[in-house]
Write a structure and sequence with these properties.
Rossmann fold; about 325 residues; 2 domains; alpha/beta; seven-stranded parallel sheet
Length: about 325
């Protein structure tokens, strides 16, 4: 059977990050791929290549399927997007033409969830706090019995229950922790599968030793974590945010952390990002600030390319795609 014609359409840096030698070799077994990398900037110079392309392999910097580009790609059937959100990539014209798209958001959820679990377990030992105290040259901090929640029977709160939160709960399941989730959709089957219970966000902030934020960023969630919720946090607890900086009212969080020095905040995302020069987050002793590190970094990005190879196999065999985004889902997504 003749292979379908394909093209890599993304930035050069994205191609190198997501589709390495192994992934490109696997793609080449399945599609007749053009040797030319097409980008948003040069695609008009490669109309001959695009004319024949039936599939697009892409990632960050991928094609926006507007009417002009669609006219140049009359044979396009499938868009394999090896990255996260497809917001802005698909247009009504693309949906109307029946072009299908799948993405690798589930692949990117893995390293974020791993990062969260590492932060949760370390925070339950008050690792960040004792890391600083251990350098204070005070013998009392080296006593065996330290007042920490520990990783047995402690309460971990998960705010929202999307892909990353679910993966975090899955990875936490082997540990002896009580994992409590705040979500509008309280599914008993999911609770059993992930070993979780449900509670309101107010209950989570009041009772949990660690609170991990996983909210989507939209007009409904902007600044939703503010003074009232933060002020109710349990003594010596930890706040973790790997979602988006905008979901927390940052000025209110900073004032809270200045007053509640017992609470530790592990902040991987800020608003704006990076923080402005002189922002107190750089200096507060109870803030662990990382530069948007949780997502796919280094070789982790190749997982997204590998997920696309899996989707290619399912598509070619006529199976349902595991990560396909429908028009309805894209419209309702945050």
């Amino acid at each position: 059977m003749k292979k379908k014609s394909g093209v890599y359409f993304c930035s050069k840096s994205s191609l190198e990050r997501v589709y390495g030698e192994v992934e490109q070799a696997e793609v080449a077994k399945r599609f007749d791929m053009s040797e030319t990398l097409v980008t948003r900037e040069n695609w008009r110079d490669h109309r001959t290549i695009l004319q024949d392309a039936e599939v697009v392999l892409s990632s960050w910097g991928g094609p926006i399927l507007d009417k002009e580009l669609l006219a140049a790609m009359p044979n396009l059937e499938m868009y394999f997007y090896g990255a996260g959100t497809i917001k802005g990539l698909m247009t009504d014209a693309a949906w109307d033409r029946g072009i299908r798209i799948t993405n690798a958001v589930a692949a990117n959820a893995v390293p974020v969830a791993e990062f969260c679990v590492a932060q949760i377990l370390f925070s339950l030992k008050h690792g960040w706090k004792y890391m600083q105290l251990a350098k204070a040259d005070n013998p009392q901090f080296w006593q065996c019995n330290k007042p920490v929640p520990g990783n047995y029977g402690s309460k971990v709160g998960i705010v929202s229950f999307g892909n990353i939160a679910r993966k975090t709960c899955e990875l936490l399941k082997p540990y002896d922790l009580e994992v409590i989730v705040s979500t509008r959709h309280q599914d008993p089957k999911a609770a059993e599968a992930y070993g979780i219970s449900y509670a309101t966000v107010e209950e989570i902030f009041k009772t949990c030793d660690v609170v991990s934020i996983h909210l989507p960023s939209n007009e409904h969630t902007k600044g939703i974590i503010g003074r009232e919720l933060l002020g109710s946090m349990k003594p010596d607890s930890t706040l973790i945010n790997t979602a988006r900086g905008a979901v927390i009212n940052q000025p209110e969080m900073i004032e809270f952390l200045k007053q509640r020095t017992d609470v530790t905040a592990c902040i991987d995302v800020t608003e704006p990002e990076p923080p402005e020069t002189g922002c107190p987050l750089f200096d507060l002793a109870n803030v662990v600030l990382t530069p948007h590190l949780a997502g796919s970094m280094g070789k982790e990005a190749r997982r997204m390319g590998a997920y696309m190879v899996g989707e290619i196999d399912r598509w070619l065999s006529g199976e349902s795609l595991q990560y396909e985004i429908t028009r309805e889902a894209a419209t309702s997504a945050a």
